[in-house]
Amino acid sequence: MQQTRKSSRLRRAAAGFADRKGGAAIEFALVSPLLLTLLAGIVEIGMAGYQAMQVQSAVEAGALYAAQNGASDLAGVAQAVVNATGTAGITAVPAPTSFCGCPKAAGVLSQGSDCTTVCSDGKAPGQYVLVNASLPHQTLVPFLSLPLPATLTASTTIRVQ
After folding, report:
1. Which of 18, 25, 98, 160 could serve as a FRET partner for 3 with CA atoms 20 to 30 Å apart?
2. Helix axes 74-83, 23-69, angle to 10 degrees
3. What's the domain count of the chain?
4. Which domain holds residue 116?
5. What distance in Å separates the CA atoms of residue 101 and residue 122, rounded to the nearest whole number?
């Protein structure tokens, strides 16, 4: 009888080790914080990319307005930047500026407001508008420390003449 009790205890103990119920729940509990952190990072980077595209779209709208209305209405260019997208917080900072310049391989060589000096290639300088936009980026998940810029910016230069 003593032997029977001992063997039944051993069988119950062996059966307990063979029972795998709940193992998946424990594994999920261990892995889920990592998966949620990865998901939060993906969402954060996706939102930053979307906001960067909105800022670029606002700059392009300001440049289109400048192309249609000339360099004399810089307040209208700034308003076009602000109103271009439905994203709140986009500003035309620094403010749009108008300048004369000569095209070069690396961009436009600014001559300030002097539109009378001839360019090095012998052509007359052109009238340009520099359009800027910025949007403060606010993180969705404060505990993540991703290397994203605090302010998203974009700029473009367009010849209006």
Report:
1. 18
2. 160
3. 1
4. 2-159
5. 13
